[in-house]
Design goal:
The protein has 364 residues and is an alpha/beta fold. Helices cover 35% and strands 18% of the residues. Strand 1, helix 1 and strand 2 form a beta-alpha-beta unit. The N terminus is likely disordered. Pfam families: Glycos_transf_2.
């Protein structure tokens, strides 16, 4: 993008778009950029498909602000998203965000995000997203729900307060992140970590946050799903009083146990604040405490008999899958300063860190 004199006072916002064989939704995402009220942006399409479906989409739009980059070989979805979440600039932008190819921005999103960072004097913004469902006819319809308003309220969150959200959800959402590339101290990238599940990727990115973030509950973009999104959970098939919420599997148990080991009641108190936002949150919180075998809490929603059954079930899970727990912890790309490395005498796995921009992309 060539800037005139008047435009030089406006910071560039760069958008990284990981894509794989979804040209129609990619076009929608790119058009949402072109419709932004803030026009000073650059975008790079990170195409992971060997057939280069995205290239024709970019060429057809004929917008100099959009750069096409094709990976010589498929690097996998996790690594492609990693590139999109590289904290420093790739295209010379002061601000950056990731926009996955099946999502799209609302027209004033970039301008609002920049205004929020400047007003709140923080480096990272977590923005709420509207959950929309794509029908077979290609029309996107609202589900009436958002990605984060059940667990976050407007304001600044410390790292520990953010970690406390892991009792209820995966913490950060890739599509809701927006940051200042010049002042950010957090590294969202996971390197060669072999975690393919998107749920755990976002948990690990949450645990890498080392500075305050600001949450804005008004939606700035659409998070789209196909079909019945509520049917996508991985819950237990046990009776309700024995079942834990969806996603509470062995790795989640390991993460929560060691988070409680590190932060104890401080973490529980932060999570208790979130639990009191709704009855649903409170029930989930108490189930999660039992999932992590934590009993130093005055349980209100789960009867004593059911507590004992859940503790027994979760203790067996930990006992029979201890080797799995250890493997999970050793594979986590913990920040180098993270106290868990000292407490548990674990070494961080060897992960790739980018000292220079990971892609050599010419800036117009």
């Amino acid at each position: 993008m060539i800037q005139t004199k008047d435009q030089q006072d406006y910071p560039i916002c760069e958008i990284r778009i990981p894509t794989y064989r979804r040209p129609h939704s990619l076009q929608r995402a790119l058009e949402s950029l072109q419709n932004q009220t803030y026009p000073f942006w650059r975008a790079v399409v990170l195409d992971n498909s060997p057939d280069k479906e995205a290239e024709a989409v970019v060429e057809e739009l004929q917008d100099q602000r959009i750069v096409y980059y094709h990976h010589p070989k498929n690097i996998g979805g996790t690594r492609n998203i990693d590139l999109a979440l590289y904290p420093q600039n790739i295209l010379g932008g002061k601000y950056a965000c990731s926009l996955e190819d099946d999502n799209y921005l609302f027209p004033s999103c970039l301008q609002e995000n920049i205004d929020i960072l400047q007003r709140e004097n923080v480096s990272i913004l977590l923005r709420n997203q509207e959950i929309r469902m794509d029908g077979e006819d290609g029309v996107s319809q609202s589900t009436g729900e958002t990605t984060r308003d059940k667990w976050f309220q407007r304001g600044i969150y410390s790292p520990l307060e953010l970690y406390a959200s892991l009792f209820f959800c995966e913490g950060l959402s890739n599509g809701g992140l927006f940051w200042d590339t010049e002042t950010i101290r957090t590294d969202f990238t996971l390197g060669d970590c072999a975690v393919k599940d998107a749920w755990y990727q976002e948990i690990l990115r949450t645990l890498r946050v080392v500075e305050p973030i600001y949450f804005e509950p008004t939606v700035g973009s659409a998070y789209t799903v196909l079909g019945d999104y509520q049917a996508a959970g991985r819950g237990s098939q046990l009776p309700k009083f024995l079942a834990t919420p969806a996603k509470n599997n062995r790795a989640t148990q390991a993460i929560l146990r060691y988070m409680l080991k590190l932060y104890g009641k401080d973490l529980v108190e932060k999570a208790d604040v979130i639990a009191n936002y709704s009855d649903e949150n409170f029930v989930a919180f108490e189930y999660q405490l039992l999932n992590a075998l934590y009993t130093e809490h005055s349980f209100q929603t789960i009867r004593r008999r059911h507590q004992l059954l859940l503790l027994g079930k979760n203790a067996c899970r930990r006992l029979f899958f201890k080797q799995h727990f250890d493997a999970v912890l050793k594979q986590m790309p913990w920040p180098s300063h993270y106290p868990i490395l000292v407490e548990l005498k674990l070494r961080p796995m060897a992960v790739q860190r980018y000292e220079q921009p990971p892609l050599a992309i010419p800036v117009a």
